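Convert to structure. Protein one:
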Amino acid sequence: MVFRTIVCLLLLVLALPLTGACLQCDRQVRHLHEDYLLASSHASVEDQIELKKIIDHTYFLYQETSERFHGVIDPTTLYRARTEYQSEFHKFMKRPVVDDMLFETILIMEKGRQILQKHLEIFSQTGLCPNKCGLLYQRVMDCSTCHYEMRTCLSPGDQRDCGEYHLRAEEEDQYSREPGLTSCQSSDSGVLVVTPDSRIVLNQLRRDEQGVYRCLLLDGDGTVLSCMHYVLTVTPSPLTTPRHVPTLPYPSSRR
């Protein structure tokens, strides 16, 4: 009787509109719930209707949870939440048959909400807009529409300058850097060639090549996403010790 009362209380909010949610957006999770409803065909018609209501309301809880964490999720976080929930759901399906199937269903659905919340908390703290400087475009899913979109991630204060780095190399050495650059300029404003794999290479360094190099990361429209400065110091190569070549004395003349 107590369990039935809990079910009824939880279903009182079903009049609220149901929208997409992060785990509901995952096709495998939806199939998991559909298979569960099919496997419950032995239950009474009334219980089957209640099971469907519980699952539908769970999607509302997923949505409500995601909205507390910016309402978006990235593909990796969604995968982690889904696989953990699948594991728990498979354990639930192997449980011994219980009398109150509705209450047990509520428990596993709440477990899914807790799993989603755990992964969203981690994502919102470390994975959402992780750039400390520069402009970043991040592909995320909107949990209300189940559609992927590009989120614009601005660094604190829209800081595009990502700092200055000091580098040291010797003459005749090769220096390379691959920070995802598409444009690089030396201190005299000369544009250097950047390879297709975003690598800049300086071969056989000379002393006059030292200085400040400003490297820009650009998008397809030419917008500067980030800027970095490299202060390159070229030191003289160590002098090689001249090799001593022994000389033979001239033979003395004989009479």
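Protein two, convert as well:
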Amino acid sequence: MSKIEAGMIVTLEVEREAPFGVFLTNGSEDVLLHESEIIGEIEVGEDVEVFLYHDKQERITATMKKPNIQKGRYGWAQVVGVQRHLGVFVDIGISTDLLVSLDDLSALEHLWPEVGDWLYVSIKTDRKGRLLGRLATENIMEQVARKAPKTAYNSDITGNVYRLLKIGSFMISEEGYRCFIHESERKREPRLGERVSGRVIDVKEDGTLNVSLFPRKQEKMSDDAEEILAYMEGRNGAMPYSDKSHPDDILEQFGMSKGAFKRALGGLMKQKKVYQEDGWTYITKS
């Protein structure tokens, strides 16, 4: 029979019934399978497959619910709670959430996962035998990742960040591609487990990808145009700037180059959203 050890899926025999469930045995040790953790009907003498974990009293107990992960087996788990003095808790598909210790998280709390983020984890035990989440290492990600095709270049891509370094962030995409986001290709550093979207700027020989979180040039023009419109709306639909304005004035007011300003303004005029008159720009009234 299987060894009774928390964190594993094992097969045990139903030894006897109890008022609140049944006791399972491997021939030398017993463990409780509470009635709330039983799926279907089971009988004394029957072999059942269960997952072993610790209850709130830190006793090993069993459930017939199958978790997403176990010792030596990795999977995605969603963050369901954050406690700054402990770490973050993830849902692994059973009634008890799994703690990923603060010792395994960034020293910068703003880079910790938030509720709703996803971590790729397995299970480990601490010195007292308690279950904890084990974050996947780069070696693990290399084993589970797929090699990206050359056609991935310049495509949109979405994934979850699994590793943080000073020089950049690593993510695994929805397709299973390993991606690197250099610090120069992002406005801010994403959190561990955060879901981010970007575009592929390089496909490496080993099938990994370099990704930028900055928008494409044409998308950037749209962002600049929105900023200009927002500024004008805050000034009753007019501004003392046009495509003839001095570059320094544009940079100081909008934080963008004269070229970017002219492209955005030209796009707005082409769409007939604004017009220029005597060095001023006005929002077109509908």
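Helices lie at 138-144, 217-233, 247-254, 258-270. Residues 75-136 form a domain with the OB fold (Dihydrolipoamide Acetyltransferase, E2P) fold (CATH 2.40.50.140).
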